[in-house]
Every structure is written in structure tokens, then in C-alpha cells.
Amino acid sequence: MFETNPFAELSVTFITPEVMQMYLIVMAVLVAGGTILDMIHKKSAKYFFQDSEKAKKNAKRTVGAGEKAGLAVATLANEVLTSGEFSNTKRRLSHLLTMYGFIGFVVATIVMIFGFSDNALFAQLWHIGAIMLCVGGYWFWFFIRVDVNSEGVRWYQLRRADLFIVSLFTTATFGLIWSYLQSSGAGAVADMGWTTLFFALFIISNTTLFSTVLWSKFAHMFFKPAAALQKRIAHADGSNLNLPGDYDLTDPAVQARFPDIPTYMGKNPPNMGPGIRREPANHY
Predict the structure, then answer these.
(1) Backbone dihedral region of 52: left (phi > 0), alpha (psi from -120 to 50 degrees) or beta?
(2) 145 Cβ contact list (under 8 Å, min separation 6)
(3) Per-residue confidence at 224, pLDDT binned at 50, 70, 90?
(4) Rounded Cα gap, residues 212 and 164, in angstroms
(5) Would you give the distance in Å from CA 109 to the centre of its chain?
């Protein structure tokens, strides 16, 4: 099973390589179109550029090209590759399993369908990626989701926002079952149609995943790195996303600027502690 290209068997039965390749192209077009429509609908791109221009006007220093490149590398290493923005360790591990599982799953699918590679490496990558998707996806769905974990919502109560994660781990699940049934030698007749059924479920889940970008978090994957980089640049140039800086409340200059501090907290305000950070992160 792990060393068998499941798509190669389809070309022998009833689906030609050209049909599978066209299907992947259609899915790519749906992702691109859904992402563009999502940006237009939510005006995220417009907000992003407006916020960037506002930050430039409030900047206290110029960030050079070299420094921006360093910030881009830091963003890639932290927010993108290691999901360092998650304080909740379980949430972070679940996200990493899902992310890298999805990347491996998609890359292996493209290679096996367009190249019909007999190399067992890509077949193994496809199956391992699907398993990682299942582990990360089910872990998130049953144990980490904030509404389940903190608000008592049942796991089977679905909302439109759940389209992405549900179609993601069901795609991986049905794909693994279909691959197992196919590799076991059971045909559509011998196994009473179970192989065909799980292949159909795999295609339905996969199509749902890539065709509902407008209503899911899929587009967020493209916007998130850009927003994380902009945040780092805003901290570096002093604009600080138009948020107040960290002040020493005992500084006379700060107290003169904010007279409410000595009025309500005295001239030597106590250390208020870590605030919300004293609680373990148990949210998105």
C-alpha cells in the first residue's frame, strides 16, 4: 500500500491520465478564483495596502532592504515554517502536522498524476502526508477547537467555517481507505463496490475542499505570511501598527504625557504582572 501509486491503478481501469490531470488543473483554478473572490469580498487586500501606507506615514525610521530581507527570513522561519505564533503547544503541533501533511499530500499527488512516477518515494510521501493530515486534523477537531474545548459545543455540530478542516481530514481519511482497498486486490465487484464508494467519497471531499475557498480558511494561508511580515516591519520602523508602545509607568515624562497614571495609580505604580499571559493559552 505505502509503495503503490493509487492513481496509476485508475488509469488501468476507467479514468485516463488526461482526465485526472484536468481535474487537478480545475482544482487549482478554483483555489485561485476563490482566493481572489475572498480578497474582494472581505477587502483584505485593500485593508492590507491601506494599513501599509498608514504605517509608512507613522514610521519613526526607515527600514532598509537588507533589514527587510532579514525580517522576511525571520517570518519564514517563525510564522511560516514552525508556526511560532501559537502559544498553545498542542495547537502548534496539530497545525504543523496538518500543514506539512497537506504539503506532502498535494505535492505527491501532483507528481504521481502528472508524472505517473513509479518511484515508491512519492507514494510513501502521499500516504504519510495523509496520515499526518488525519492525526493533526482529528486532534484539532475533537480536542483543540475552542468551541468544543471551552464552550461545550458538540463535535458533530458543523458550521460553514468548519468546511475547511472537515473536508481536509475527510479527504485524507477516504484517500487512505481507498488506497488500502485498492492495494489489497479487492476490485469494485469483489468487494461489493467499497473501493469505488471510498474513491467517490475521496473525490467529493477533495472537490469540497478546493471549491469552497470563499467560505473557508483556505485563503488565509496566503494572506497570513504577508500580514506577519508587515507586523514585523511595523515594529521595526516604529509605527507599531498604530498601537501604544511599552512605557515605564514610573517615568516622569510618561506620567506627564498620561496624567491619569499618577492620578489613579500613584507616582510609583506597582507591577501588574503578566496579565492574560498568566493563564495557559487555550484558544485560537
Answers:
(1) alpha
(2) 153, 155
(3) confident
(4) 8
(5) 19
Q: How far apart are CA 33 and CA 36, in angstroms?
A: 5
Distance CA(214)–CA(41), nearest Å, equals 9
Helix spans in 43-140 (H):
44-58, 65-75, 89-115, 120-139
SS3 content of the chain, % helix, strand, coil (to 5): 70, 0, 30
Mean pLDDT of all residues belonging to the chain: 81
CA distance 180 to 127: 10
The H or E element that residue 89 is part of is: helix 89-115
How confident is residue 104, by pLDDT bands cut at 50, 70 and 90? very high
Q: Report residue 70 CA to chain centroid gap.
A: 23
pLDDT, tens digit, 9 for 90 and up, residues 50-92: 777 777 777 778 878 888 889 889 888 888 888 887 877 888 8
pLDDT 10s digits, 138-170: 998 888 876 665 666 776 777 777 888 889 999
